């Protein structure tokens, strides 16, 4: 039995996941918690937020994020790959900065106009 705190919404439900009983999840107050508990033990993923270099912007770094969650094991590889990325302004919120980063199926998108 694993105990987790759900991070999907602000409630922070205390979940219990029974690995021996088909990953049955208890303690959730919404369906998102049940999905999170199962997914966290079978294939954990995260949305990545970071920055990339920008030329001609009002700041030196442009905030970015993945447009979907990626496998937790690829976080450091993605962040390292972003070190080599440099863009030029103007950039709009939602612009794709890197398409399909490291074959994860996730795009890196801008989270600020600059």
UniProtKB/TrEMBL annotation:
Gene3D superfamilies assigned to the protein according to its UniProt record, in alphabetical order: CPE0013-like (3.10.530.10)
Pfam families the record matches: DUF1667
InterPro entries noted in UniProt: CPE0013-like_sf (IPR036593), DUF1667 (IPR012460)
Domain of life of the native organism: Bacteria
PANTHER family reported in the protein's UniProt record: DUF1667 DOMAIN-CONTAINING PROTEIN, MOLYBDOPTERIN OXIDOREDUCTASE, 4FE-4S CLUSTER-BINDING SUBUNIT
Identification of the protein by name: DUF1667 domain-containing protein
Species, as recorded: Zongyangia hominis
């Amino acid at each position: 039995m694993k105990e987790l705190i759900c991070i999907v919404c602000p409630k922070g439900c205390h979940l219990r996941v029974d690995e021996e009983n088909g990953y049955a999840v208890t303690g959730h107050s919404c369906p998102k918690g049940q999905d999170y508990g199962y997914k966290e033990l079978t294939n954990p993923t995260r949305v990545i937020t970071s920055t990339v270099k920008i030329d001609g912007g009002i700041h030196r770094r442009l905030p970015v994020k993945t447009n979907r969650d990626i496998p937790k094991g690829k976080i450091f590889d993605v962040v390292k790959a972003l070190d080599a990325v440099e863009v030029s302004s103007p950039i709009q919120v939602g612009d794709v900065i890197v398409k399909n980063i490291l074959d994860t199926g996730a795009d890196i998108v801008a989270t600020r106009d600059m």
